[in-house]
Amino acid sequence: DTAVSQTPKYLVTQMGNDKSIKCEQNLGHDTMYWYKQDSKKFLKIMFSYNNKELIINETVPNRFSPKSPDKAHLNLHINSLELGDSAVYFCASSQKVAAALFLDTQYFGPGTRLTVL
Amino acid sequence: AQSVAQPEDQVNVAEGNPLTVKCTYSVSGNPYLFWYVQYPNRGLQFLLKYITGDNLVKGSYGFEAEFNKSQTSFHLKKPSALVSDSALYFCAVRDSGTYKYIFGTGTRLKVLA
Predict the structure, then answer these.
(1) Which of chain A's ends, N or C, has fewer CB atoms near its CB within 10 Å?
(2) How far apart are the CA of B15 and the nearest CA of chain A, in angstroms?
(3) B98, closest residue in chain A (CA to CA)
(4) pLDDT of residue B43
């Protein structure tokens, strides 16, 4: 009965490679997010999608591209991986309460620890 | 611009004692405030939130937080700490006029037996 799941849990790869992290939520939520948590535990939002539409796109390099095939999935594809991309990436989802308002709780996935060598 | 500050990197408290984890915020509109907890190698879990209404909000695991508009604070409290409360705690804020949540830098709580 997992609410927000991410795969893989760990990802170790070489610089320059392209990799994807998948996220799925079975909560029926409209909105999904990607966060990056660095080694100092700082948590920063990267992207947010509502019903497959991009609504937040922070100053993230173009190498990062989110893809939402449907509202239950938000995948993160990273091209040309760099050492600085090493972090834990968290997916989250929330339910839209009213038009243009996102008041409800975010539910987080378990995280994907990405290590770039 | 919205921001949130957690001034303490770490808080140590003896088991059974009351605990406080501090959070202050800055927004241009009305604040929506949240507390999340992160256990080792886990995702964040929701504890409680303030949207409107009573300033004292009660949440999961016996935690509560008080919204103080004049001091722009939303400190997390618990009357009696447990060793199992040891974790990383994040305060988050969303300005009513935006979609974006801003998280604080986190406070590590250590409850000593």
Answers:
(1) N
(2) 25
(3) A101
(4) 82
A55: Cβ contacts below 8 Å, ≥ 6 apart: A31, A48, A49, B99
| Cα–Cα distance for residue pair A29/A73, rounded to 1 Å | 10
Q: List CB contacts (< 8 A) between B88 and chain A.
A: 41
A41, A107, A110: residue with CB nearest B88:
A41
Residue with tokens 């590590």: B108
Residues of B numbered 42-101 whose beta carbons fall under 8 angstroms of chain A's beta carbons: which are they? 42-46, 49, 51, 88, 90, 94, 99-101
Dihedral sign of CA atoms B18, B65, A30, A42 in order: negative
DSSP state of B97: T
pLDDT digits (tens, 9 = 90+) for B19-45: 999 999 998 888 889 999 998 877 888
Contacts of B70 (CB under 8 A, 6+ apart): none
